[in-house]
Amino acid sequence: GKHFSSGGYIMGFLEATPEHVSKLAWNVAAPARCAKPVIAANRGYCFGVGFELSLACDFRLVTETTQYALPEQKLGQIPGSGGSARLQKIVGITRTKDIVMRSRRIKGQQAYDWGIATEIVADGELEAATDALVKELVGFSPLAQRTAKKLLNDTEDSSLAIAIELEGHCYSRLRSSEDFAEGVKAFHEKRVPVFKGL
């Protein structure tokens, strides 16, 4: 489509129960909980809950015409599905205040420069770039991908010492995996490894 998301259904906001809002926040966080890598291909508008959903993904691809925004201030509200918290982790408190408190739109290039977007491509190349990223990720060990994602998510707020300790445990576990043995064997045999996720 022309746009990723223009945000939530504003007319229904007043009728939404606290349970509905809580369930929405849980659903928006699903990409972060998913064991597999999750890619958001953000074309055009990516506003409100659509931006929050994208922030929960592992990779965000944008074009020159992509626009991100958390415009809830214009409704007398704040983001309600983790958007401000996730954004602050990525760009810091100063830039997050600028985006959230001013309902400011961020264009694709700026999103890339600030680290919100993983990659920026021309408007007509978003699908091809997304397909290329999928192909790249599928070539890696599913077990190593799951482990890396969980480790990075779990240690985001940890001290350096704890993060290094957990990384060491994960590294040791992967050393006994069939995929690691296959990767090392394929490297020595100068061939592409065939990973099974074991």
Structural class: mainly alpha
How many domains? The number is 2
What string, H for helix and E for strand, traces the elements in order?
Answer: HHEEHEEHHEHEHHHH
The helix count comes to 10
The CATH architecture name of the largest domain reads Alpha-Beta Complex
Q: What is the fold's blueprint, element by element?
A:
Layout (H helix, E strand, L loop, with lengths): L17 H11 L1 H4 L5 E4 L2 E3 L1 H7 L3 E5 L3 E3 L13 H9 L1 H9 L4 E2 H6 L5 E3 L4 H13 L3 H13 L5 H16 L2 H11 L10
Parallel strand pairs: 1-3, 2-4, 3-6
Antiparallel strand pairs: 4-5
Helix pairs in contact: 3-4, 4-5, 8-9
Structure in a nutshell:
The chain is mainly alpha-helical and 198 residues long. The protein has 10 helices and 6 strands; from the N terminus they run H-H-E-E-H-E-E-H-H-E-H-E-H-H-H-H.
Describe what you observe in this structure.
The structure is a single chain. Helices cover 50% and strands 10% of the residues. The chain is built from ten helices and six strands. It has helices spanning 18-28, 30-33, 49-55, 83-91, 93-101, 108-113, 126-138, 142-154, 160-175, 178-188, and strands at 39-42, 45-47, 59-63, 67-69, 106-107, 119-121. Strands 1-3-6 form a three-stranded parallel β-sheet, sandwiched between helices. α3 (49-55) packs across α4, α4 packs across α5 and α8 packs antiparallel against α9 (160-175). It is globular.
Keywords summarizing the entry:
198 residues; mainly alpha; 2-enoyl-CoA Hydratase, Chain A, domain 1; 2 domains; three-stranded parallel sheet; 10 helices; 50% helix; 10% strand
